[in-house]
Design a protein that fits this description.
This protein is an alpha/beta fold. It has three domains: 89 residues, Rossmann fold; 177 residues, Mur-like, catalytic domain (UDP-N-acetylmuramoyl-L-alanine:D-glutamate ligase, 3-Layer(aba) Sandwich); 138 residues, Alpha-Beta Complex (Protein-Tyrosine Phosphatase, Chain A), CATH 3.90.190. The chain is 36% helix and 20% strand. The protein has 15 helices and 18 strands. It has a seven-stranded mixed sheet with strand order 8-7-9-6-10-11-12, with helices on both faces. Strands 13-14-18-15-16-17 form a six-stranded mixed sheet, with helices on both faces. The model has no long low-confidence stretch (mean pLDDT 96).
Length: 424
């Protein structure tokens, strides 16, 4: 079957494209710009056009899959509509792919990417050989997709727009819950409703792996019709990954692995956990600037994630000054979690703010990085709002030395700053 994918460079879309190819389909795709994922797809022989155009859609395509960032007026979606080609969103397509497979879905507001990768490594190293779709590139796997058994799939599942509900997993892992995706969920309660429904969609004779004592998770587990495994009872080994949050991710992965394959013991599971070196954009060490500052990049884009990353970084580098270069993601999230961003970012030694990454949104009046910087500056005077990556790179290269740790942070493309300031 010929499948065309619009927004193929997205982290989930690019993994799904590889799975489709693995299953023998012919895949083409398009995206707005080059990225590490489009480069990966090119290496794997999947053609990607970087100029959206109606002619990109093969006339004999049987299916068009589009990402959430692609609206109905996209010329390729319009062409598919006019040609009568079936269209599915990414998670609709993923839901179809999982039918007939034993599916382990990893969901939650924080930690799902790392937990998915850890679980995949455990099962892979222990001979269970899963296929996997992971929400980041994993250097050890050389991709965000792992090719394994066709009937066993580990998949990262996102709650945004209720996408999680497109899946009916055999095992559902819930890492944690907290209010996020505020443009879709008007409240924590609304988000909990989605997870409550997801709990009821777990297949008969399935299992849920979660922390039933978490005050936000516990309520969504009430009335579950399948057993709940408490992952906090697991003991993680010493990890290369920093932070207590990664210890919790390891507990969840360990519990999920034992749930799927009861034969596995700590002796089987702990070595893979200890050996795991991390994923792209999760406290990823990028290198050093010419003046000796150490540069890390991290995906944190929620106040809680910022807090936990900063705590872990201070523990690892107690004698260093930490500069966070933060790229706010979405106007709505910045507005709704404004107070939390101010509180957590102000704890760094210095802060540089990048203009808000809009993604799918239009600007909201008075919600800007400048306004966020003004509030942070009242608690931490070492705060700046700069308007271009070029300005930020110059600031970091001229004013940071070997006593500094620089962390570029956010769900946008701020990682490009980290890439540009490290010495070759």
């Amino acid at each position: 079957m010929k499948i065309h994918m619009i927004g193929i460079g997205g982290i989930g879309m690019s993994a799904l494209a590889q799975l489709y190819c693995d299953e023998g389909h012919a895949v083409t795709g398009s995206d707005r710009e080059a990225s590490p994922t489009t480069a990966l797809l090119a290496e794997k022989g999947i053609p990607v056009s970087l100029s959206p155009h109606k002619d990109n859609v093969p006339s004999d395509a049987a299916l068009v899959v589009y990402s959430d960032a692609v609206w109905e007026d996209n010329p390729e979606r319009v062409q598919a509509q006019n040609a009568g080609i079936r269209q599915l969103s990414y998670f609709e397509a993923l839901g179809e792919v999982t039918k007939g497979k034993f599916t382990i879905a990893v969901a939650g507001v924080h930690g799902k990417t790392t937990t998915t990768a850890l679980l995949t490594k455990i099962l892979r190293d222990s001979g269970e050989n899963p296929s996997a779709i992971i929400g980041s590139l994993v250097p050890e796997f050389g991709s965000n997709y792992v090719s394994g058994k066709k009937d066993l799939l580990v998949v990262e599942a996102c709650e945004y727009k209720d996408h999680l509900l497109k899946l009916s997993p055999n095992i559902l892992v819930i890492t944690n819950l907290e209010w996020d995706h505020t443009d879709w969920f008007p409240s924590l309660s609304a988000m909990q409703d989605t997870f409550r429904e997801a709990v009821h969609k777990v297949k008969e004779e399935g299992v849920i792996v979660a922390d039933p004592n978490n005050p936000f998770v516990g309520p969504v587990l009430s009335g579950a019709k399948v057993p709940v495994v408490d992952y906090t009872k697991e003991v993680p080994p010493t990890l290369q990954l920093i932070g207590e949050f990664n210890e919790m991710n390891a507990r969840a992965a360990k519990a999920a692995a034992k749930t799927y394959a009861p034969r596995l013991t700590d002796t089987d599971i702990d070595p893979p956990l200890s050996a795991f070196a991390g994923t792209w954009r999760r406290f990823e060490m990028k290198g050093n600037t010419t003046s000796g500052a150490v540069v890390y990049d991290d995906y944190a884009h929620h106040p809680t994630a910022i807090r936990e990353t900063l705590v872990a970084a201070r523990k690892k580098f107690p004698d260093k000054k930490i500069t966070i270069v933060f790229h706010p993601h979405l106007y709505s999230r910045t507005r709704d979690l404004f107070k939390g961003f101010v509180e957590e970012l102000s704890k760094a030694d210095s802060v540089i703010l990048v203009p808000i990454y809009p993604a799918r949104e239009i600007p909201i009046a008075d919600i800007t990085s400048d306004a966020l910087a003004d509030e942070i500056r009242m608690m931490n005077p070492n705060t700046k709002s700069l308007h271009t990556f070029g300005e930020i790179e110059k600031e970091l290269q001229e004013n940071k030395s070997a006593q500094d740790i620089i962390i570029t942070m956010g769900a946008g493309d701020v990682y490009k700053v980290a890439d540009h300031i490290v010495s070759p």
